[in-house]
Amino acid sequence: MWNSNIYQDQDLKQNDINIELHELNGFESSDEESNIGLIKSEVIHSSSSSSFSFPCQRLQRLKNLVTFNSKSSSSSSKSKSNYIYLIMGLNLIILFIISIIISIKSTSPIIKPIIFWKDYLHSNNQLQNLKANNLNNLINYKTHLNSNETSSETYPIHSHNDYWRSIPLFNALELGINSVEADVWYLPTINSNELYVGHKKLLLSQYKTLDSLYLSNLETLLDELNQQHITNGLFNGVLKNSSKTLNLIIDIKTNANETFNQVLSQLKPFIDKNYLTFYDSTTKEWEIGPLTIHISGNIPYELIKSQEKRYTFIDSKLDSPEFQKQYNNELSIFTSSSLKNLIRSKPNNDGLTQEQLDILEDKFHTAQTMGIKTRIWDIPNHQNNQRDEITMDLLKIGVDMINCDDLKNCIKLLKEFKEI
């Protein structure tokens, strides 16, 4: 006998399915029609199969799948949009960087705002402020020269990257430092009369030039200090109570010959007033002036060598394998090299090893025998103790000039060395 309850249960379940199918119709949209159709087919198939157990639960799982797929589709769409925006943003950044690189390499005058981008962060009165500051610096330094309270001692210290100091040139002069450095760039398409001062091209400023930071200040000082010449023909120097020369190292960053010719053009007032040290290659005679110019970086070797009267001198390369053949004391007053190029190994934390000292001492002896003074740069600077130990080691083996970032600390080390 057939159990009527079975038919009743099946009728109830079929009603549930019809209800669920009706609800599924509510889910339909243009994006989901294909999925819903598949689910409907699955429901109908399930209802007709012999394994028609728990069709409602199965249908519920399918409904959950639809909802999940719908949310996933929406999330995926948003992710794709975000990804597209990200790619577009990265492309814009890359294009901007490329345009800057092209601009820096380019010689077009159109790129002037990019070369001097830092200037646009300041007021339009910066040039006037710079001139006012220069005047104040000159006044303050002349007060320093006339003061009886300040030391008149001069130190064989080189102010490395001097233009980075709060007051270029004058910070060094007030301490009695007798060597300063300016890295120069000649950009004739922007201004054929200027030499811009800076470590990197991207950091140049139209307000920071060799003339504005150094030459105009030095000329004004020398003019005022030498209104009346000393009877023996010597000029007063810019260092306090001293006729000693100030060394200005001009590091050429652009084309050697073009930049050098512009340097000579800007030095002409000093040459005309006999302020520069020079060597006469005809008479083989020297005349020491209150200012001595050294050329480093991209050196126009042949141009300097060919000068009959030599007003600029080569900062020769001490690490050159052809040092003795290439240089002499008529071309070069100072020679220099990075520490690592000479010793070819890392120094210890407590200073140089004996092997490293022997290498350097031999190099110093070679140069000094030729009448050329020595300077070592790129001394490790991240540990003060190591830096000071290496500096003291260099002094002990006879280096002629200390390359220095912390000027006051180098003065302290020199005084300690003299007391040994």
Automatic annotation (TrEMBL):
Report the superkingdom from the record.
Eukaryota
Q: What are the GO BP annotations of this UniProt entry?
A: lipid metabolic process
Which organism is the protein's source? Wickerhamomyces ciferrii (strain ATCC 14091 / BCRC 22168 / CBS 111 / JCM 3599 / NBRC 0793 / NRRL Y-1031 F-60-10)
Similarity field: Belongs to the AIM6 family.
Note the InterPro entries from the entry.
Answer: HAT_RTT109-like, PLC-like_Pdiesterase_TIM-brl
Q: Which UniProt keywords apply?
A: Membrane, Signal, Transmembrane, Transmembrane helix
Q: What is this protein called?
A: Altered inheritance of mitochondria protein 6
Annotated transmembrane regions: 83-104
| GO MF terms, alphabetically ordered | phosphoric diester hydrolase activity
